[in-house]
Design goal:
This is PLP-dependent transferase. The chain has 13 helices and 18 strands. The chain is an alpha+beta fold. The strands form 5 sheets. It has an 8-stranded mixed β-sheet, with helices on both faces. A 4-stranded antiparallel β-sheet has the order 15-16-18-17. Strands 1-2 form a two-stranded antiparallel sheet. Helix 3 crosses helix 11 and helix 7 runs parallel beside helix 8. Bound molecules: pyridoxal-5'-phosphate.
Length: 468
């Protein structure tokens, strides 16, 4: 059986494949067929050829096969002969520790080249995690690849989907680390506004409904839906559903960059991810989801993963083959040992501890904001992540006015007074002036937070005095 779906792309009526399969008793969703992505893949992605050796590597895992294939070094010549580490027990992190040692086989895997998409056992563990966290079962129109952090995968996904000069939808303010990717492709960055409920779907709709007929519509939307870097905002369920509906109507794919997913500490139940929500859509395959272990296990370990339709993952895999062959086997082997030992329940317990840790940090920071800056700035309380995004207010108690630009105060006055923060302008694709400032509350002890905000008060008052 097949079904017909309009993607919203001009002149494009595409067929989606209907699956009669049922996975774990649930009816599997309809998945978009591989040809659907033909219109999305960039010229660079289409031009990339597979590496002849790496393409055959998965066959080495065929039982009974003797491989004379890859020029792999013999691990017995490597000097590292054992690897042990200690981890906190997620069931009682303050009192118990678990000693771990990679088995000779695990160590050999960690020291050797492996598959371009990542260690098969870690891919498997991630499939299980996504089923628990997002209710997306393996085989339901998506697959996994591991990268050197999510940044590596975001870069590869963008270059697999976007041609130089094309228009892209970017929520604004946006994670400053993706701007150079779009800038290097000379993209026409279309800002989509955000507010306390996250991305503004009405702003997105208005942009798309007034899109010039002669100009190709954007193929991707980039968004950070939980504890957004820099605003700290989490997109509401309603907004997410509207964005999903718009993606079908106007034919764009959603790049869901979600490194703060496990750092949600809001009191209300968390909204599901786009990746989960799309399962309830008439078909699946419009969400490219990025996860990261950086905020919950280690940022130095450089392990992130993408969950996306096979065609997109394959295009990214070809990029990895030519750019860096694969993510680090050793990092993956360490992460896998830890994750398997903890199990999914342990991972969940650990991430709950981590999110509570940041909730407490948020509370300390907010209390200091109230103490020192309540009359000088305004902010919305973040419910996930590690950032507060606050606005310098334009009018002082004495009636003097302040420039609608945080940059000079933050870069010069604040620094002179011994405090560093980021002016909001660096998070805006257009680089326009803004009164906002991003402060990270992840690292500082309470006394340093207090001192920093005290200094910021003096810097702002000083700036006001000199601009009066
Ligand atoms: C929104 C966002 N995306 C991606 C990244 C990159 O994370 P990773 O360490 O997984 O590469 C960061 C890092 O701060 C981030 O804030």
């Amino acid at each position: 059986m097949s079904d017909t779906v309009s993607t919203g792309q001009p002149d494009t009526i595409l067929k989606s494949v209907s699956s009669e399969n049922s996975i774990n008793g649930q009816r599997a969703p309809k998945t978009l067929p591989g040809e659907f992505y033909e219109q999305y893949l960039s010229r660079a992605a289409k031009n990339r050829q597979p590496d002849a050796i790496r393409s055959l590597l998965p066959l080495e895992h065929t039982p009974g096969v003797i491989s004379l294939l890859a020029g792999k070094p013999n691990t017995s010549t490597f000097p590292i002969s054992s690897l042990q580490f200690t981890t906190r027990d997620p069931a009682s992190p303050s009192s118990n520790e678990i000693q771990l040692q990679l088995s000779p086989q695990e160590l050999a895997v960690g020291l050797q080249y492996s598959l371009t998409r990542g260690l098969p056992d870690l891919q498997e563990w991630i499939h299980g995690l996504q089923a628990i966290s997002h209710k997306r079962e393996k085989g339901e129109g998506w697959t996994v690849a591991i990268g050197a952090g999510s940044q590596d995968l975001i870069y590869k996904a963008v270059t697999a989907l976007v041609n130089p000069g094309e228009a892209v939808l970017i929520e604004a303010p946006v994670y400053a680390g993706v701007l150079p990717i779009f800038q290097s492709l000379d993209c026409d960055m279309i800002e989509v506004e955000t507010d306390a409920q996250g991305i503004r779907s009405d702003s997105l709709r208005a942009t798309l409904e007034s899109w010039p007929a002669a100009k190709p519509k954007p193929k991707v939307l980039y968004t950070v839906p939980y504890g957004c870097n820099p605003t700290g905002m989490t997109a509401s369920l309603e907004r997410r559903l509207e964005v999903l509906a718009l993606s079908r109507e106007h034919g764009f794919l959603i790049l869901e960059d979600d490194p703060y997913y496990y750092l949600y500490y809001g009191s209300a139940p968390r909204p599901p991810s786009y990746f989960q929500l799309e399962r309830e859509q008439p078909d699946v395959g419009r969400v490219v989801r990025f996860d990261s272990l950086s905020k919950v296990l280690s940022s130095g370990i450089r392990v992130g993963f993408v969950s996306a339709p096979e065609v997109i993952v394959r295009a990214m895999e070809l990029h990895t083959m030519m750019a860096n062959l694969q993510p680090s086997s050793l990092s993956q082997a360490i992460a896998l040992k830890l994750l398997r030992t903890w199990g999914y329940a342990g991972f969940r317990a650990h991430t709950e501890h981590v999110s509570q840790f940041y909730r407490e940090k948020r509370d300390v920071f907010e209390a200091a904001l109230r103490r020192h800056l309540a009359d000088l700035v305004e902010w919305t309380t973040p419910e996930a992540g590690m950032f507060v995004w606050f606005k310098l207010l334009g009018t002082a108690a004495d009636g003097s006015t302040l420039e609608n630009d945080s940059e000079s105060i933050i870069r010069t006055k604040a620094f002179e007074h011994g405090v560093l923060a980021l002016p909001g302008t660096v998070f805006l694709p257009s680089g326009r002036k803004t009164a906002y400032v991003r402060a990270a509350f992840s690292l500082l002890p309470p006394e340093d937070v207090d001192e920093a905000l005290k200094r910021l008060r003096v810097a702002i008052l000083d700036a006001r005095a000199s601009s009066a």
